[in-house]
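Components:
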Amino acid sequence: MSEAALFALQRLSAKLLAPLVIVHLVLILYAVHGGLSAAEILERTRGSVVWGGFYVLFVIAVAVHAPIGVRNVAREWTRWRGRSLDAASLALAFILLALGLRAVAAVVLPG
Amino acid sequence: MASPPKLDVRIWRGADAGEFVAYEAPLAENQTVLDVVTWIQRHREPALAYRFACRVGVCGSCAMTVNGRARWTCRSHVKDVVADGRLVIEPLRNLPRIKDLVCDLAPFFDKWRRAGGRFEGAGTRREPMPATDPDTDARRAADAGIECINCAVCYSACDVVGWRPDYLGPAALNRAWTLVNDERHVKAREVLDAVTAGGGCALCHTHGNCTEHCPVGISPTAAIAGLKRRSLRRSLGRRWRRRGGWT
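Structure:
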């Protein structure tokens, strides 16, 4: 994938993440301030297509956005270059995707 | 009789290996850093190497690092930049050092060319210059960056240039942005391709050091942001066309 394509992907995922992160943070504040228990939270998320969709989208955007940025930082701050760095970035993408989707499944799928 | 006020000047002598050498120079009410360097070369150190030409802020050849900050020395007044009666003068950052205050600017201008910085019009010298409307958005964007004197102060101030040797840098990208917006330039697409490729505008962190340091008040940061927008739109459009849309 070309550097231009990676840049485009990172920019687009950033645009997507901006509103998602805001909703996510507001949601955390709301849940904490409202004093919701874990059970009450699960009650609202389990089986919810909206929250499931929201967080699947969130996880995909993170899995695209973060590895590209980490790759850039590695190339700026270290001597790491080339295929091994690309492979590591791709691996990071899959790790984030797997961990994230697992977390989404845990709160959305009926227990 | 009290002795006349003196200025404590430390100047880098040598190339990569070297040392600061201390000189005493007369302190005048109205003098520039370049005046001080010239005085030292004429009266104390004839072998001191430094560059200058116009002395009035047009040619862009006298930039140095003065008290830790890249500046055009011909228009930096000593009284504005002196710290505790001392001037520490070094060559520019991010460029190979040749001798004393002189850097090799070849990488700077090579990148300027790599960014497609050379103007190419459609006509020949025998035809009149095509008229341009100064009031279009594109022309205004080009005009905002056109007065660059290529002093390399921004290039020296940019952290990303220090991290990524292949990064084109603010001056080359600013030049590219003026050409992309110049309706008379026939290679705007090639310029966009050049600045979208690896080492191009995507590497900019928008720190704004270039804009903060630019002696003539240009904002390469804004130019690079423009290039990012344009190259993003272009790479998306290209993908779209490849799939059969917009044909």
